[in-house]
Amino acid sequence: MKVYEQEQPIDKRSPWRAMWRGFMLRCPQCGKGKLFNRFLKVADACPHCGEELHHHRADDAPAYLTIFLVGHILFPPIMLIERFYEPDLWLQFAVWAPVLALLTVALLPRVKGAVVGLQWALKMHGFEGAPTAQKALDTST
Ligand SMILES: [Zn+2]
Questions:
Q1: 106: CA distance to ligand 1 center in Å?
Q2: How many whole angstroms from 11 Cα to the centroid of ligand 1?
Q3: 50 C-alpha vs ligand 1 centroid, how far in Å?
Q4: pLDDT given at position 6
Q5: Residues with CB under 5 A from ligand 1 (ion)
Q6: How many whole angstroms separate alpha carbon 130 and alpha carbon 58?
Q7: Exposed e or buried b for every residue in 56-75, given b needs 16+ CB within 10 A?
Q8: How many angstroms does the Cα of residue 7 sit away from the middle of ligand 1?
């Protein structure tokens, strides 16, 4: 059984498990429900366990982290191919531009899922787990 498919909700909010579940586009609480409604639109609540997910404030962090990851993944093969094969620039652009675009589109929602999972595990931005009614009482006093 894979980590993100475990049926039981996690008792202690493990950051690594929550980030892995988010990376797999699943709810950080249960690992079953879908984290996103659309490409980068986080669901308001998990369709499986009902955990509120609208508290996330991922902002620009997923974009920065995706740029960092894609750059570090593609830089070595680009440099090695340039060093040993010296292909024409038009050929390199024709190959690497689509690879870069596809890798970015593939990683961006997963990185955002991991960021949301980390925020959930660290109980940031309202992810502390208090019932919504209790939160309303807390803010009114
Ligand atoms: Zn869930």
A1: 22
A2: 13
A3: 6
A4: 57
A5: 27, 29-30, 33, 46, 48-49, 51
A6: 20
A7: bebeebbeebbeebbeeeee
A8: 10
Residue whose tokens read 């931005």: 125
Structure tokens at 62: 């997923």
Q: Does the pLDDT of residue 132 top 50, yes or no?
A: no
Q: Is 54 exposed, middle or buried (0-12, 13-18, 19+ CB in 10 A)?
A: exposed
**What pLDDT, in 10s, does the model give residues 52-97?**
998 888 889 999 999 999 999 999 999 999 999 999 999 999 999 9
CB burial class (10 A; 0-12, 13-18, 19+) of residue 97? exposed
Question: CA 78 → CA 66, 69, 100, 102, 108, distances in Å?
Answer: 18, 14, 11, 16, 21
Would you state the structure tokens that stand for residue 140, as one six-digit string?
A: 């009114």
Retrieve residue 93's tokens: 């652009």
Alpha-carbon distances, residue 101 vs 13, 22, 24, 63, 135 (angstroms): 34, 22, 20, 13, 42
Q: Measuring CA to CA, how many Å separate 88 from each of 57, 81, 91, 102, 124?
A: 43, 11, 5, 22, 49
